[in-house]
Structure to design on (199 residues):
């Protein structure tokens, strides 16, 4: 590095300042993305099906070449969830699936009951190229992304939303090709009315 010792010192100080500021901004963006843009968790009895259908309709309208299919369990009960947070989670997963098929393939979103009715499952499947094994462990980390654009916060936000609901999130292969993200949420049993005592 050329220049006088004073100039070199100035360059070093500027470099350290830039690194420090980038780190600070990264932390700020992380906090903002996780908390400022997500209101407080506010669960209430919610039907998952209209949430899924609303997200699907949004992508059908904006991607005419896309086929997005929804299938719902008829016996799906109301879940004690935050509908706004859950809509964001579903939208992030659908957005990833739409990107995987370049906005012109097929994406499936399905709701079903599993585990003897104790858990509700939301599955978002695509017929894209799939996710390489080397990327899978890093997918849910903040700022990790396989996309050219974006900040890599989508799946980290989904994971946080699912965790706040006491649920689980996993990635599966959608054979013969593609990926499937699976959210499972606990079904809270409805409280029974108090028995009426005789006479």
């Amino acid at each position: 590095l050329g220049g006088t010792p004073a100039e070199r010192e100035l360059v070093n100080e500027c470099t350290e300042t830039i690194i420090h500021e980038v780190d600070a901004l990264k932390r700020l963006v992380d906090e903002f993305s996780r908390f400022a843009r997500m209101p407080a968790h506010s669960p209430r009895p919610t039907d998952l099906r209209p949430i899924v259908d609303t997200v699907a309709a949004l992508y059908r309208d904006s991607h005419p070449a896309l086929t997005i299919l929804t299938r719902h369990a008829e016996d799906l009960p109301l879940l004690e969830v935050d509908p706004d947070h859950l809509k964001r989670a579903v939208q992030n997963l659908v957005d990833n699936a739409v990107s995987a098929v370049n906005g012109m393939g097929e994406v499936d979103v399905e709701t079903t009951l599993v585990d003897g009715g104790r858990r509700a499952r939301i599955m978002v499947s695509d017929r894209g190229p799939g996710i390489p094994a080397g990327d899978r462990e890093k997918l849910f980390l903040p700022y990790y992304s396989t996309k050219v654009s974006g900040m890599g916060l989508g799946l980290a936000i989904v994971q946080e939303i699912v965790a706040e609901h006491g649920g689980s999130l996993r990635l599966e292969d959608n054979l013969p090709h593609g990926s499937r993200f699976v959210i499972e949420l606990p079904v809270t049993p409805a409280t029974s009315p108090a028995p009426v005592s005789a006479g």
Notes: Helices lie at 5-36, 48-62, 83-100, 133-136, 154-164. The radius of gyration is 22 Å. The longest helix spans residues 5-36. Strands lie at 44-46, 67-72, 79-81, 106-114, 119-126, 168-173, 179-186.
